[in-house]
Design brief:
This is Lipoprotein. Its main location: membrane. The structure is a single chain. Helix 3 (45-63) links the parallel strand 2 and strand 3. By secondary structure, the chain is of the alpha/beta class. The chain has helices at residues 9-19, 30-33, 45-63, 77-84, 95-105, 145-157, 207-212, 217-220, 246-255, 258-268; strands spanning 5-7, 39-43, 67-72, 89-93, 109-117, 121-123, 138-142, 162-163, 176-178, 184-188, 202-205, 223-224, 234-239, 273-274. It has 2 domains: 39-119 and 231-274, Periplasmic binding protein-like II (D-Maltodextrin-Binding Protein, domain 2), CATH 3.40.190.10; 121-224, D-Maltodextrin-Binding Protein, domain 2. The chain contains 10 helices and 14 strands. It starts with a strand and ends with a strand.
Length: 276
């Protein structure tokens, strides 16, 4: 039977509020504390849960790893669930996002091993190139601080806007010093950006959400992040102290195996790039 459990954001958010970040002492902690049971990993559906499902179905049994995959559709609950012990690990995020999340929420999540990069891209249903964007065009960007800054840095790197010197991982549209097309920015939850493409002139979309929306980053993006020296690789993460869990160590080995590299390259055709 398929172990993957799809969970809606609304239900998960309610659960997170009920449990809080300090929840303990219940059977929900079994995903993290019982190292003899299955390792429960929270993941975004694409490509993270797909990669984990490949590991579970093709590599886990012979490696002695019992793996359960839970799909989450937001970027918050996987970390709160890892913090409170509802799951033993998560796989969906990059270092700048995690640093920001830990700082703002008082969580203690740490990376274990980097697996892949999903290049961020600019997409449009209305123009065929970034140069074709008209003056005053509206561009949707993710509304969380790290991904918004990442989106603006993508536009800056491609000469569409210019950010002020020193604009880092908390850059916002107020940090734009040159905007020759007088672009307007619409801030949306990251998962909503591909759905906005019929309503805006262009949108900057995270790689996983682009793939879920049947966009091919390698082919459809007007501009795309470079993989070279990119700090946004996605990694397996756990609550601090769980790095020594033998199940976590085994999963880290499998996620960086030659078999997983081939699966990523064959399945995603350049839209997801191995980082190991």
């Amino acid at each position: 039977m398929r172990n993957t459990a799809k969970i809606t954001t609304a239900v998960l958010a309610a659960g997170a509020l009920t449990l809080g970040l300090t929840a303990c002492g219940s059977d929900k902690d079994s995903g993290a504390s019982d190292t003899s049971g299955p390792l429960v990993v929270a993941a975004s559906p694409t490509p993270h849960a797909e990669i984990l499902t490949y590991v579970r179905d093709n590599l886990g049994k012979r490696a002695g790893l019992d793996l359960e995959v839970k799909e989450f559709t937001d970027y918050v609950t996987p970390n709160t669930a890892t913090e409170d012990g509802s799951v033993g690990a998560n796989f969906f995020q990059n270092q700048p996002y995690l640093d920001d999340f830990n700082k703002k929420n008082g969580t203690h999540i740490v990376p274990v091993v980097t697996v892949h990069l999903e290049p961020l891209g600019l997409y449009s249903h209305k123009v065929k190139s970034a140069d074709a964007l008209k003056s005053g065009a509206t561009v949707a960007v993710p509304n969380d601080s790290v991904n918004e800054a990442r989106a603006l840095k993508l536009l800056d790197a491609n000469g569409i806007i210019t950010l002020k010197d020193g604009a880092g991982n908390e850059a916002t549209p107020s940090d734009i010093v040159k905007n020759p097309k007088n672009l307007r920015f619409k801030e949306l939850e990251a998962a909503q950006t591909p759905r906005s493409l019929d309503d805006v002139d262009a949108a900057v979309v995270n790689g996983n959400y682009a793939i879920e929306a049947d966009l091919s980053p390698a082919q459809d993006a007007l501009v795309l992040e470079s993989a070279k020296d990119n700090p946004y690789g996605n990694f397996l993460a756990v609550k601090d102290g769980s790095e020594t869990d033998p199940r976590v160590k085994k999963l880290a080995e499998l996620l960086t195996s030659a078999e997983v590299r081939k699966f990523i390259e064959d399945t995603y055709d350049g839209s997801v790039i191995p980082s190991f």
